[in-house]
Amino acid sequence: METGILFGIIFAIVGAVIGFFISKAATSRIISDAKSKAKALKEEVDKELEFRKSKLELEVERERTRQRSDFERMTRAKRVELERLEKRLQDQRESIESRADLMRKREKEWIVKERQIHIKEKAIKEKENQLTRLIRRENEKLERIAGMTQEEAKRILMENLISEAKAEALQKIKQIRDEAEHEAERQSREIIISSIQRCAAETTVESTVSVVTLPSDEIKGRIIGREGRNIRAFETASGVDVIVDDTPEAIILSGYDPIRREIARIAMEKLIMDGRIHPARIEEVLAKAEKEIESIFKETGEQVCFELGVHDLQPELTNLIGRLKFRTSYGQNVLQHAKEVSWISGYIASELDLDPRIARRCGLLHDIGKAVDRGQEGTHTQLGYEIAKKFGEKDPILNSILAHHEDVEVTTPYTIIIQAADAISGARPGARRETIENYIKRLQKLEELADSFPGVQKTYAIQAGREIRVIVEPIKVSDQESEILAAEISQKIELEMEYPGQIKVTVIRETRAIDYAR
Q1: How many angstroms separate the CA atoms of 197 and 186, rounded?
Q2: Residue 336's closest CA among 319, 320, 324?
Q3: DSSP-based three-state secondary structure for 117
Q4: d(CA 418, CA 381)
Q5: Domain final residue, candidates 93, 123, 153
Q6: What is the SS3 assignment for 329?
Q7: Bigger pLDDT: 509 or 427?
Q8: Domain span holding position 286
Q9: What are phi and psi for residue 242, nearest 5 degrees?
Q10: Same structural domain for residues 168 and 231?
Q11: Half-sphere exposure (CA, 13 Å, Cβ side) for 435?
């Protein structure tokens, strides 16, 4: 019995030992399998990470290549534009140099002519003295032959001399006026042509539309959006109409506010370049474009001041000058007009021995009131005067702004120069547009002015108001008096009318004899 228990205990111990070793072997095998799976999983994760890293690097390289291509394309475009500007600047420099040589040559010729005129004046004075002595001798002979008293002879002689003197005076007046007009016209033409040539500026063609170029016609559908939601959102947020028609690779932005239209153009180009077009993105891009337009105002104003040599302007005035880039008046870009007036004023001031820097400053700021928003009341001269005075501009500039349309009294010579330069810039061909109503009123007033003179039978305004022909009654107006009448009509037109360029006055006098054979 005891032996059986002993063997049982021994067998139990041996079984436990064998079980232990078997369990240990199984555990080792499980651990080994787990390690193998962990190793395989790690290798798989490493491969996945390597693949994603390669894919990300490839995308980064593609984006870098695209940006590099865009940058190179923009750089080439800028380089071409810079070369074009340099060529135009070189052409203008050569034109100025040739013009300066011509002016020096003509100045020498003028000095020679002045000397010749001085010699001729001396000869004329000598002939006048001889004529006086001859008249005295003839008067003495007349007294002896006629047997008249000295008083009677004087009276008859004076009547004859007065009649002859009137005719000679009228002829001499006409000759002197023709010579003076010819010489004045020649010199003024030289100054004006030189000024205009030296400040040739590009003009704005369109004032109500902007064209946005598209990379392809496929993007038009994205601009319109599903059921037109994108285009409606853009028009509502920008205040500009978007016209999508059959024009290849282009859309049109239409609006009367040029600043809003420019903001819309910048935003539309950004949306097209980005490719993400939806209402939320449209509002975001338009907000950024409004901030960008403010920087454009500042940069444009600073660039114009640098070109014209106008310094020490307040930043607010500089920004207002930049806003003039997007304003038009009678179809003429106001900033280009201000630059033209500034350049021409500087050249005229130089010819008159005045300070060209002050003249250029006056010309640049003379229409600054047109940059103010429409919400403020008052004429552009009054608004410009208040703005310039607020920022500390001096009296010549203030008077040039306030009086360049002759609304108030002129107190400085610079204002007269600004008036002339303003008329030159506005009168050049293609600068401005005139409404039919103003055109008809100008022609009617021109004819009414000429009809107001005595002896005028009929007047006709022709050549689009550049010439007026006046028919007079031959009994009331003589040939000599017609010359004086033409001069008086010209003076009255200059005083009472505003017109571009010049108006030719032609007085016609004729006598017709009519009879019938029966």
Answers
A1: 16
A2: 324
A3: helix
A4: 13
A5: 123
A6: strand
A7: 509
A8: 209-308
A9: -110, 120
A10: no
A11: 5
Residue among 218, 242, 235 at smallest CA distance from 279:
235
Distance CA 422, CA 124 (A): 42
- State yes or no: pLDDT of 71 exceeds 60: yes
Rounded Cα distance between 47 and 518, Å, is 127
Helix 395-403 crosses helix 356-365 at what angle (to 10 degrees)?
Answer: 40
DSSP β-bridge partners for residue 241: 254
| Spatial separation of the C-alpha atoms in residues 201 and 194, rounded to whole Å | 14
93-113 exposure pattern, b = at least 16 Cβ within 10 A, e = fewer: eeeeeeeeeeeeeeeeeeeee
Contact 470, 456 (CB under 8 A): yes
Helix or strand or coil: residue 476?
A: coil
Q: To 5 degrees, how large is the angle CA 274–CA 280–CA 281?
A: 15
Sheet holding 467-472, edge to edge: 456-462, 467-472, 504-508
| C-alpha dist (Å) from residue 193 to 92, 96, 213, 246, 368 | 14, 12, 38, 45, 26
Which of 319, 397, 84, 338 is closest to 199 using CA atoms? 338
Quick one: average pLDDT of 333-359? 86
The answer to whether residue 28 scores a pLDDT higher than 80 is no
Cα 332 versus chain centre, distance: 6
Give residue 177's identity as a one-letter amino acid code.
Answer: R
Place of tokens 């006026």: 177
Q: What average pLDDT score do residues 225-249 get?
A: 81
What's the token pair of residue 205?
Answer: 């063609």
User: Do residue 304 and residue 327 come from a single domain?
Assistant: no
Question: What percent of the chain lies above the pLDDT cut of 70?
Answer: 82
What tokens does 81 get? 């534009």
Regarding whether 304 and 229 lie in a shared domain, the answer is: yes
For the entire predicted model, the pTM comes to 0.47
Q: What are the φ and ψ backbone dihedral angles of 228, each rounded to 5 degrees?
A: 75, 20
**CA-wise closest residue to 385 among 360, 372, 366:** 366
Are 129 and 117 contained in the same domain? no
Q: Range with the lowest mean pLDDT among 145-154, 275-284, 293-302, 384-393?
A: 145-154
For the chain, the domain total comes to 5
Cβ atoms of 338 and 287 closer than 8 Å: no
Q: Show the CA angle centred on residue 429, arms to residues 192 and 501, nearest 5°.
A: 55
pLDDT value of residue 61: 87
Which is more confident, 360 or 380?
360
Same domain, 70 and 152: no
- Dihedral sign for Cα 175, 176, 178, 182, please: positive
Tell me, what amino acid is at 330? Y
The b-or-e profile of 422-445 (16+ CB within 10 A means b, else e) is: bbbbbebeebbeeeeeeeeebbeb
d(CA 416, CA 419): 5
Q: Is the same domain home to 339 and 403? A: yes
Q: How far apart, in whole angstroms, are the C-alpha atoms of residue 299 and residue 305?
A: 10
Q: Which amino acid is at 176?
A: I
The CA radius of gyration of the chain, in Å to the nearest whole number, is 45
Report how far residue 359's alpha carbon sits from residue 338's, in angstroms, rounded to the nearest whole number: 12
